[in-house]
Write a structure and sequence with these properties.
2 strands, alpha+beta
Length: about 55
């Protein structure tokens, strides 16, 4: 969690609640997409979230 929070700060994100997406890349870096960076009219995967049910 500490590493994630550090990566968020490096990307200018104050809290994980402001991050639309954080990805652990194959090289070990963390990429972050902020909600503010997404245009409201954009068709993104975030608009089509699917939730898995636990059995």
């Amino acid at each position: 969690m500490d590493e994630l929070e550090r990566a968020l700060r490096e990307h200018g994100v104050g809290t994980y609640k402001d991050a639309a997406l954080a990805v652990l890349e194959v090289d070990g870096s963390i990429s972050v997409l902020k909600y503010d960076d997404i245009e409201p009219t954009a068709s993104t995967h975030l608009n089509r979230r699917r939730f898995l049910k636990k059995n």
